Amino acid sequence: MTATATTTGISGKLKALFAPRGIAVVGASRHPHKLGATLARSLSGFAAAGGRLALVNGRDDTMYASVAQAAADGPVDLAMICVPAPACADALAAAAAAGARAAVIHAGGFAETGEAGAAWQRRLAGVVAETGIRVLGPNTSGFLAPHAGLTATFVPGAAQVRPGRVAVVAASGGVNHALAFLLAEAGHGISLAVGLGNAVDVGAPDVLDHLADDPATGAVALHIESVTDGPRLVAAVRRLTARRPVAALVVGRNDVGAFAASHTGALATSWRLTRAALAQAGAVLVDDERELVDAVGALAVARLSPRASAGVGVVTAQAGPGLLLLDDLRGRRAHVPELSAATRDTLAELLPPLTYQRNPVDTGRPGPGLGRVLATVAADPGVDVIAAYTLHEPDAVDIVAAVRQGRTSEVPMVLGLAGTGEEVARGRQALLEAGVAVAADPRGVATATAALLADARARAAQPRRPAVLDDLDAGDGGPRGDARGAGPGSPEGVAGPHDEHQAKELLGRISVASMPRRACRDRAAARAAFAELGGPVAVKLLDAEVLHKTELGGVHLNIASPDELEAALDRLDAAGARRYLIEKMAPPGVDLIVGARRDPVFGPIVLAGLGGTVAEALADVAIRLAPLSLAQAASMPAELAGRALLAGWRGGPVLDVDELSRIVVALGGLLAANPLLDEIEINPLRLTADGLVALDAVIIPREADDAQPHL
């Protein structure tokens, strides 16, 4: 067995790709500037580590004429294909026929370039389907597996990245290398770094599943540009985070769809939804590549036990940077509790009297007592993680020794060590080796600390099983009814369109409150309903085909007299009304929107946020995959920018989070259980002094073809 196989411990479906016994470079060249020559040089370390390297070029008699000829002399598990796009499918088929079980296709010119390239990519997919060979790429610079001495990339300098505990899974080969280099600069080594390219076969879920069983990996940095199979990605992240933490960077906050399509051959997936899905699966979200490095670097050396809340003890040797750190932590909603009286008494014996000692703890300058200060703060009953910062001042304190003295195994520590030069780099490396997460500035400390907190919260929130709607099972015709439509809300259940009255009837089955109302077939019925309900009322056009009644003049509010009723009915008739809804006016409050819909990538999702007629303009919503647990739904309001409006703003009503959570869970379960539903929306769902009440509701059926199972 070669060194490649023994040093990685890799097993499973991707062993031939990431731990091959032998590699053939197809399209190798003696011209130093050609891709085949560059790859051959990059792979020299693999040969030196005991792996077999075969160069293939049918036009060079110093090399093998084919992969089959190379395989006759020894194992070839992996083919590195360096030929133009039109020739790749034939080269891949030949490699598979010769016994290669994996390949990396470096060439561009596939789906990212248009229809002609997409045709070449479909040919690759056909070879994969016919032969079972695993393919990374096309349009990728490759991967790094430093533990095996395997630099399967044409990027200069990649061979200098040392082995370590951080894995990178990136949509882009360029981002893969950029992150690997940034991690190396920060003192971290790499277990595996993969650029997926167009991902005709091997995608992020495959690599994540592989890393879940890789003992060399401590944490994973995930870079996402687009998603084709949302449920599969979410399942892979959920499996991985149960064992190893994941920090994720999703591209697409702004409009980059056209460039993303030209880059990877797929449109950028919804940024907001992708982030929500990854977070729900347990990943820690970051906003840029620097945050990704700080977050995953911390998670690779420390991990809090699962918990819903954790306290941060802040220790700073310089007040100004400490204030930046505290401000950043507060902005990330980290809990920075005041230290106990006993802790403050001990600190008063260790620090000058003018220093701040309640939390943050300001030492004034780093001194010989820093280690004892750190240990004292870590021992406080309200502190679960330490966030510390100091400038490099070797004449004042040996920071590595102080941290070793102050560090405890129960309370992870993130230390910002600021300075330049080799001595600082050595200090940071020594701290990492001691199990202390390291950053270079206050923002990096805050990012790393927040990552530890987010990972702990995410694991605490993972449900053992999705919420179940016990009162709506198949036996009573509820949302678990069969696809033929036995369900609540109409004689056809969930089949067919629902007008507002029918939609609210269905929602009533899952205990969503609405105002007293009457569905009226003519004016006489409308007059009778008004007399029964009493004013003021809302008078609405009732038609399942009209989704936005307000835009058509189909809603008239505060109708308080028979004359006003007649005028409203006249206007509705002019708008094309054939039926009317007379509904009691709701009390004032704060308007929300809640809903559930089927996303083409991720499947059933739910959302909750600020609603009313400006819901689309504000886009202040939180999103989750469905079905979901009550705990997952309960975390949604805290994500809203307008969350203060739900907490009794200026004497207004206070949201019962449990009530909202129950509604969101019920909507998600209803949609997930019924293939004939495409979308359910309650907008507004008004928060009143008496609770939540649905003022309008829309249910959109799914087209018959879309409702069929995808095989």
Describe the overall structure.
The chain has 711 residues and is an alpha/beta fold. It folds into five domains: 1-155, Rossmann fold, CATH 3.40.50.720; 161-301, Succinyl-CoA synthetase domains (Rossmann fold); 304-461, 3-Layer(aba) Sandwich (Rossmann fold), CATH 3.40.50.261; 516-584, ATP-grasp fold, A domain (Dna Ligase, domain 1, 2-Layer Sandwich); 590-701, 2-Layer Sandwich (D-amino Acid Aminotransferase, Chain A, domain 1). 36% of the residues lie in helices and 20% in strands. The chain has a seven-stranded mixed sheet, sandwiched between helices. Strands 22, 23, 24, 25, 26 and 27 form a six-stranded antiparallel sheet that branches. Helix 13 packs across helix 19 and helix 14 packs parallel to helix 19. It starts with a helix and ends in a 10-residue tail after the last strand.
Specify the biggest β-sheet.
7 strands, mixed
Fold-level CATH name of the largest domain: Rossmann fold
* Major sheet: arrangement of strands: 7-6-9-8-10-11-12
What is the CATH domain class of the largest domain?
Answer: Alpha Beta
List key phrases describing it.
single chain, Rossmann fold, seven-stranded mixed β-sheet, 27 strands, 711 residues, alpha/beta, flat
Layout of secondary structure:
Blueprint: H1 3-8, H2 15-18, E1 22-26, H3 35-42, H4 44-48, E2 52-56, H5 67-72, E3 78-81, H6 85-97, E4 102-105, H7 115-131, E5 134-136, E6 142-145, E7 150-153, E8 163-170, H8 173-185, E9 190-195, H9 204-212, E10 219-224, H10 230-241, E11 246-250, H11 257-264, H12 271-280, E12 284-286, H13 289-301, E13 312-316, H14 319-331, H15 341-350, E14 361-362, H16 370-378, E15 385-391, H17 399-406, E16 413-418, H18 422-433, E17 437-439, H19 442-461, H20 500-508, E18 517-520, H21 523-533, E19 537-541, E20 555-559, H22 562-574, E21 580-584, E22 590-599, E23 603-610, H23 615-618, E24 621-625, H24 630-634, H25 657-673, E25 677-688, E26 691-694, E27 697-701
